[in-house]
Fold:
Amino acid sequence: MVAEDSDNIAIFGDVHGDADRLERALEFSFKNSISRVIFAGDYVNRGKRSRQVLDLLVRAKNDYPGEVILLRGNHEESLLDFLHGGKLPDFAAHGGLATIRSYLDSVKTGAPDEFKIIFPDEHRMLLEETSAFYEDEGILVSHSGFDPQDPASRRPAALYTKGHPEIFTHTGPWPRPLTVCGHYVQTSLQPYDTENLVCLDTGCGTIPGGLLTGLLLPGHKFVQF
Structure:
């Protein structure tokens, strides 16, 4: 998604099934009249409440059309692949069993097939409509940043299906003055913050005490839940 500049943006990192922190982040954004709320992907897997996370995001998109922008992460890609016939071990390797459990009253033989059958259409549509990136003159937001070997690329492999940890030692050129991403867990529970690169994945839903971190622009301030 390419957009004109907005003067009041909140960008949030990985959620990973932590519905409580997501709910607090949404409440904060709407109470503070944020004009555009962008999520950098990875809403599902690993954490225990992926179903509730997608419920919250569906409601937010319905209540605030045009204000909530959902980008795709590699975990959304893994869930869609599984729903479209992918192999269970591949989905499980991404923490997908926690997502399956969040949809079923009990997990028993045949649970993966039952999960595919009962998976809500509104959740599937939400996932399928996620964008690969958000971009304006000042920022590029995508799940895993960009490919340092080809900063102009907007292919899925550059933006969300693959990681590019070498961006943390990249010295330029930059696709935009500021790149904002998730994906790379900051075990310090603090965002990685430099002039040209911000990483917002502070372990929400994945490590004990992990936080959901947001970047507020243009002031370049951080909030955590």
Remarks:
- The chain has a mean pLDDT of 96.
- The radius of gyration is 17 Å.
- The longest strand covers residues 211-217.
